[in-house]
Specification:
Layout: H1 4-18, H2 33-38, H3 45-77, H4 80-92, H5 97-115, H6 122-128, H7 135-142, H8 150-172, H9 177-199, H10 211-220
Helix pairs in contact: 1-8, 3-4, 3-7, 3-8, 3-9, 5-7, 8-9
Length: 230
């Protein structure tokens, strides 16, 4: 039986993981958004909102969060073969150098943070070094405790992504704080639906297909002026 103190501790952990202050460098990536601004595809609050809502439903809900769900199950049973397979899938679906760099760098940084939290056993943490660590795989480990629901873990993951992307939009479009909060509000209203879709997506239907985003990421690698690393 989970005590009130343990429940509060888990809730605070989720808040930490969703916070932009989490020391993993998420603020330094725009995931192709900066290239979309450079090309004139995103020019204002409305186009930034539409872009991010589409990215939430087309990528996060169909690929990233179903991956997170599968990985949480693998961590809970400590299925090492499955964890290796999910890590391979993660790396194979990172189509450009910058996107691969992001998932590896953020994964390593989150693992360093996790080592100092005393919330996961050392055996699982040490096993991450054999994978190698990537952002969704290590994040799944952070929320793999049995008393954290899958839905709460996915909601935390989605909100963390939304916070970082809104900050990227504010800096690159650029937009003011009022517009940033309006976009974040729109995303938070869409997140529950995206999470429900992810929870109902089986491993066979999990997919990563976003050719426009891959092209934007490739273009960003040689973009003349950049604020972000992706």
């Amino acid at each position: 039986m989970t005590t009130l103190g343990e429940s509060a501790s888990r809730f605070m952990l989720l808040l930490q993981l969703a916070s932009p202050a989490l020391p993993v460098g998420g603020f330094s990536y725009s995931e192709g958004l900066e290239s979309a601004v450079e090309l004139g595809w995103i020019t204002d609050e409305a186009s930034a909102k539409n872009w991010l809502v589409d990215q939430l439903h087309l990528i996060q809900a169909r690929s990233e969060m179903p991956l997170l769900q599968a990985t949480v199950h693998a961590w809970r049973s400590f299925d090492q073969k499955e964890l290796h397979a999910l890590t391979a899938w993660t790396l194979q679906t990172r189509e450009t150098f910058e996107v691969k760099l992001q998932t590896e760098q953020m994964g390593r940084s989150l693992l360093i943070w996790l080592r100092n939290q005393n919330i996961v056993d050392d055996e699982r943490i040490d096993f991450c070094n054999d994978l190698p660590p990537t952002w969704p795989i290590v994040f799944a480990l952070c929320v793999s405790a049995e008393d954290i629901s899958l839905k709460d873990g996915l909601m935390t993951y989605a909100f963390s992504w939304a916070e970082n992307m809104v900050q990227a939009a504010m800096k690159s479009v650029p937009l003011g704080q009022k517009s940033g909060q309006a976009i974040l509000t729109a995303l938070t209203r869409e997140i529950p639906q995206a999470v429900e879709m992810a929870l109902s997506t089986s491993a066979e239907k999990r997919q990563s297909f976003a050719p426009h985003l891959a092209i934007l990421s490739a273009l960003h690698e040689t973009q003349y002026s950049r604020l972000f690393r992706s």
